[in-house]
Amino acid sequence: IAEADALNARLEADAALAVLAEAEAEAEAAGLAEPLARIATLEGTIHFPRGALAACLAANRKALGWARRAGSALAEAGAHTGLAWAHYQSGDFRTAAAEADAALALADAPAFDRVRLSALRVRAVTRTFLLDHDAVLADATEAVALAQEQADAVQEVLARTTAATVHLECWRHQEAIALVEPAFALARPLARLGIEAAPLWVMGTATGALGNAGPAETFLRQARALAAAGPIRFALPRILGTLAFFTGARERLALVAEGEAALEAMQVAHSGLGFWSAVLLAALAHDEPALARRAEAGLARFGGTPPVPWAEALLALARSFTPIAEGGADEGERAAAAAFHARARETPALSWLRPVMRIVELRAGLATPAGRG
To answer: Which of 179, 272, 345, 349 has its CA 20 to 30 A from that of 59?
Structure first.
């Protein structure tokens, strides 16, 4: 098991799976339930970044069965955490949150800290899509502290990025920048993983929102290069969609095509939601309603049934503001747009959508009521 873990750390996934198959055969022959749980959990961990969702779910379900047979709370917490990550990838965010809750209920002792760190991270990213942003910040902040205690640079970088994303969506850009600035020193020694792409995306998004388009585009192009070349490509679609905000129409369409191709290769729900949300904002801001309609369809595809709250909000934005951009909004659609704008004003987690709403309204010659800007 240790050999497979080391091979996976060196990004030799196929070799790691081959070693695990040998270990599994030996453990099954000896009837060793606890090692079998660990083997299955590690197998799921290896499948996860490859986007092999069915294999990841199957491995973690197997791990949970072995853990319960062994009576190992640690192994059971690890299996629940693996299941949470798998459901997060598949877009079943509510189930993912429940699995993370189950893991954290078990992981309440220092011996569980490694599992607890991963469970906190997955619950944080999952709660983002449930618009539970205060809880996201609490989980991500605890995850940063645990990662520092464990000297786990990868987990710290990613936890900082999750917390910074909450600040971006609540229109607190300086706070987001302050959170990710320390991440660069942590990420650069791990260049082969490409994780620096995540804080670079935060920097690009924040600096762009602060009115610095040139530096924003530079950050995002750097993020794109790292995400495209690295072994963990989940961040690439959203980076492409965000970069599309800062380019001309021709390159924007090329970036959208590149993002669609990346999504087809991985079929990961949170990547699809991040990508199409960014494309929607770029399309509305640049008066490209046909592209906004494509983004609406993409959000509907990845948002779940019924849509998770984050996706529901983006769909409400698309369905109320795209008709205004098209120039044919009826009275009901304009009323829906006004209602959504009021909702966004009262919901800090939707603050990042409000500037584009105002762009659309002003372009259409609509008066912006006091307090809505």
So the answer is: 272
